[in-house]
Amino acid sequence: MEIRTFPSKYLEKAVNQFAKLPGVGYKTAFRFVLHMLKQDEAFIKEFTASINDLQENIIFCNVCNNFSDSPICSVCSKADRHNGQICVVESFKEVMAIENTGQFKGLYHVLGGVISPVDGIGPSELNINSLITRIENEDINEIILAISPTMEGETTMLFLYRKLSKFNLNITTLSKGVAIGDQLEYADEITLGQSILNRTKLKVDF
Ligand SMILES: [Zn+2]
Question: pLDDT of 101-135, one tens digit each?
């Protein structure tokens, strides 16, 4: 291993911290640190405060489990979003992608992942019980399963379908505009928007 000597232990520490980020190699980490060294105090304060805020101020919405700055998120707190529809997604990234299309006017429920036995993620690791509690207590008539059609995603949809079929609900899924294997978050806005508008009844044939 290459021996790297730094003129300052603070420099070394900062480089090592940046190098922990995904996709950031040692060289890039060094470039980041050199850039930081040239910035004024206000920049550094704002930069470090925004990192601190990630940990200290972001919480999960008590209702839908999306990231939020308050106990009830900005979607759940709007009265006009309570239209009887809940769109079930894997993570906040899909909420962002769907919100960007401007085509969905209902509520969300963030599962926090998909069922993946290889990764040790079973149904009890996901926010499924809280979804059922919502269906029991809110006036819900449609559940849209907006989950990527990967093997794990389809397993999750099948599990949810079985859990939810006892309720008097329409269970729908996105139309196949989003190609198999595509992650929802990478689908372009128009395609994703259309697949929300043209959603179809979930057919359990997998
Ligand atoms: Zn919420």
Answer: 898 999 999 999 999 999 999 999 999 999 999 99
Which tokens is 54 given? 């990630």
Reported pTM: 0.84
Give residue 170 CA to ligand 1 midpoint distance, Å. 21
Residue 191 alpha carbon to ligand 1 centre in Å: 25
Centroid of ligand 1 to alpha carbon of 118 (angstroms): 29
